[in-house]
Design goal:
13% strand, binds uridine-5'-diphosphate-xylopyranose, binds adenosine-5'-diphosphate
C-alpha cells in the first residue's frame, strides 16, 4: 500500500498530475520537488493567480489539497527518501549539442534524477517514468539504480502522461486510458503495477487501465503524439490544395471525419501545430529510427515536421503577398502567442516563427495574448531573431489587452484560437484600421461571410 509519493519535476506535467493524484488519494502524502526555487515558490504562493502554470480548474484543486496532502518543496533528497513511489517528471528537451543534436532527447536530467535516487534511497522504491522518453530509457534508469549501495530494491514502471495543455485537469480526471508499462512476468513487477493501478483506481475504472511491457509503453507515447501531429500535418497539406481549388478545408475535414475509421477529432486546419511535445517527440522518433538504420521510417515521420514548417511559412508568405507584396513599415496586429488557447505556454508556438518571418519583412508588430506575458514574448523573440531586448522593444509592441491595439493597423493576424477573439466588435475594429483592412485568420475562428460584409479583406486557412 503506497503511503507517500514524491514527484521530481514541478512542471506542466508533474504539477497538475500530482494535484489530481493528491485530490483523489487523500490517504497518500504527495510531495512535488524541483531544483527551481522560483517555481516552487510560485506553487506555494498564497495568491492562486500566481501559480506557475495556468490550467482551468487547477487552482481550485491546489487550494483544496495544498498543505493538506500535497506539498511543494526543493528538498529533493528528503522527499525521495521518505516516499514509496517516485515519479520522474523532469523535462527531456531536444539535444542542443553533440551527437543527436537537434533530434535526440536530452536525457541528462533523467540521468541526474536516477543517480540522485540511487544515492539517497534507503528503502525499496517503485520508480515511475512520467516524462516522455525514448524507447529503452528504462534500461538506462535500471542500470543506474543498480549502482545503489544501500541494498535497496527498485522496480521501474513507465506511465506516460497523455494530458493536453489547456485541458490538463479534465484530461486527468477523465482519461481515455491510463497506460502502465512494467515487468509483468515477475512477482515484483506485478506488485508494482498493482500499486500504481491502485492509485488510479480511486477515480478511473479498471477497464481504462492498460498494462503492457515497459518498452511498448514508452513507444506508445511517442507513437500517439506522432499520429496526432500527422493528422494535423495531413489536414494542413489539404488546406493548401483547398486554397487553389475552391474546396473548403473545414467542409472536407467534416466530411472525412464522419468516417468512423478516421474520426472527427484533430482535423482542424491551422497555422501549424506547436507545443513542447509534437515536434520534439517526432524528432526523437526519427532519431531512433535512424539509429537502427530504418531510414525509410525516419524519412516518413520527418515529413510531418517538414509539412508543419511549410504551413507556417506558407501562411506568413500569404500575409505578405496579399498585402501587395510588402509589409515593410506596416502595423500588423498579432492576436495570440500561445501555441493554443487556454494556456500560457508558448513553447514551439507557430506564432514565434510567423512573427519572425514578418519581422524579416520589416513589419511593425503589435502583439496581444490573453495569458502569455510580455516578458515571455520578448524572450521567445530574442531566441529566434538573435536581436537583444532593446532592439526588439524599438520595433515590437506588446499589449496587456486588445483595447488600444487596432488603431491605424493595416492587418490583423490571428495565431491562437482564444475564445475572446471571437467576441470582439469587428465593426468598431474595422473603423479604427487603415483601408483596405486585412484579417488573416490562422485558426479559422471568424465567419468569413460576416467579415467580408463588414468590409474586411478576409483570408482563412484552406478556403
Ligand atoms: C477502400 C476504402 O476503405 C473504401 O472506403 C473506399 O470506398 C474504397 O477503398 P477497400 O479497398 O475495398 O476499400 O478495402 P479496405 O478495407 O479499405 O482495405 C484496403 C487495404 O488496406 C487492404 O489491402 C487491407 O488489407 C489493408 N488494411 C486495411 C490494412 O493493411 N490494415 C488495416 O488496418 C486496414
Ligand atoms: C499533445 C497531446 O495532445 C497530448 O496527448 C500529449 O500528452 C502532449 O502533446 P498539447 O501539446 O498540450 O498535447 O496540445 P494539443 O491539443 O495536442 O495541440 C498541439 C498543437 O496542435 C497546438 O498547436 C494546436 O493548436 C494544434 N492543433 C491541434 C491543430 O492545429 N489542429 C487540431 O485539430 C488540433
Ligand atoms: P514538462 O512539460 O515535461 O512538465 P517542464 O519543463 O514544465 O516539463 O518541467 C520540468 C521540471 O523539472 C522543471 O521545473 C525543472 O526545473 C525540473 N527538473 C529538471 N531536472 C531536475 C532534477 N534533477 N531535480 C529536480 N527537478 C528537476
Amino acid at each position: 500500500m503506497i503511503k507517500s509519493i514524491c514527484c521530481i519535476g514541478a512542471g506542466y506535467v508533474g504539477g497538475p498530475t500530482m494535484a489530481v493524484i493528491a485530490l483523489k488519494n487523500p490517504h497518500i502524502k504527495v510531495t512535488v520537488v524541483d531544483v527551481n526555487q522560483d517555481r516552487i515558490n510560485a506553487w506555494n504562493s498564497q495568491d492562486l493567480d500566481l501559480l506557475p502554470i495556468y490550467e482551468p480548474g487547477l487552482a481550485d484543486i491546489v487550494a483544496k489539497t495544498r498543505n493538506v496532502n500535497l506539498f511543494f518543496s526543493t528538498n529533493v533528497d528528503e522527499a525521495i527518501d521518505q516516499s514509496d513511489m517516485i515519479f520522474i517528471s523532469v523535462n527531456t528537451p531536444t539535444k542542443t549539442y553533440g551527437i543527436g543534436k537537434g533530434m535526440a532527447a536530452d536525457l541528462k536530467y533523467i540521468e541526474l534524477c536516477a543517480r540522485q535516487i540511487a544515492r539517497v534511497a534507503t528503502t525499496d522504491k517503485i520508480v515511475v517514468e512520467k516524462s516522455t522518453l525514448p524507447v529503452r530509457t528504462a534500461s538506462t534508469i535500471k542500470s543506474i539504480l543498480k549502482q545503489s549501495h544501500n541494498n535497496v530494491k527498485f522496480e521501474i514502471l513507465s506511465n506516460p502522461e497523455f494530458l493536453a495543455e489547456g485541458t490538463a485537469i479534465t484530461d486527468l480526471l477523465n482519461p481515455d486510458r491510463v497506460l502502465i508499462g512494467g515487468d509483468y512476468h515477475t512477482e515484483d513487477g506485478k506488485n508494482a503495477i498493482a500499486a500504481l493501478s491502485g492509485i488510479y483506481l480511486n477515480w478511473v475504472t479498471g477497464d481504462k487501465i492498460i498494462t503492457t511491457n515497459i518498452w511498448s509503453s514508452e513507444l506508445s507515447k511517442l507513437t500517439a503524439n506522432a499520429f496526432l501531429a500527422q493528422r494535423i500535418a495531413s489536414v494542413n497539406a489539404m488546406s493548401a490544395i483547398c486554397e487553389v481549388t475552391e474546396a473548403n478545408v473545414d467542409e472536407v475535414a467534416y466530411a472525412i471525419g464522419k468516417d468512423t475509421r478516421i474520426g472527427e477529432k484533430f482535423l482542424k486546419a491551422s497555422v501549424g501545430f506547436g507545443g513542447s511535445c509534437f515536434q520534439k517527440d517526432i524528432l526523437n522518433l526519427v532519431y531512433i529510427a535512424k539509429s537502427f538504420g530504418l531510414n525509410e521510417v525516419a524519412d516518413y515521420w520527418e515529413q510531418v515536421i517538414l509539412m508543419n514548417n511549410y504551413q507556417k511559412k506558407r501562411f506568413a508568405q500569404k500575409v505578405v503577398q496579399k498585402m501587395f507584396n510588402t509589409v515593410s513599415g506596416k502595423k500588423i496586429v498579432l492576436l495570440g502567442w500561445a501555441f493554443k488557447k487556454d494556456t500560457n505556454d508558448s513553447r514551439e508556438s507557430a506564432a514565434i516563427d510567423i512573427a519572425n518571418y514578418l519581422i524579416e519583412e520589416q513589419a511593425e508588430l503589435h502583439i496581444y495574448d490573453p495569458k502569455v506575458t510580455a516578458q515571455q514574448i520578448f524572450s521567445d523573440l530574442e531566441r529566434i531573431t538573435g536581436d537583444n531586448l532593446q532592439q526588439l522593444q524599438e520595433k515590437i509592441h506588446v499589449y496587456n489587452s486588445a483595447e488600444a491595439i487596432f488603431n491605424n493597423a493595416h492587418a490583423i493576424v490571428i495565431l491562437t484560437e482564444w475564445d475572446e477573439f471571437k467576441t470582439y466588435n469587428y465593426i468598431d475594429i474595422k473603423n479604427q484600421m487603415l483601408e483596405p483592412a486585412f484579417i488573416f485568420d490562422g485558426r479559422n475562428i471568424l465567419n468569413p461571410a460576416e467579415m467580408h460584409q463588414i468590409g474586411f479583406q478576409y483570408y482563412g486557412i484552406g478556403k
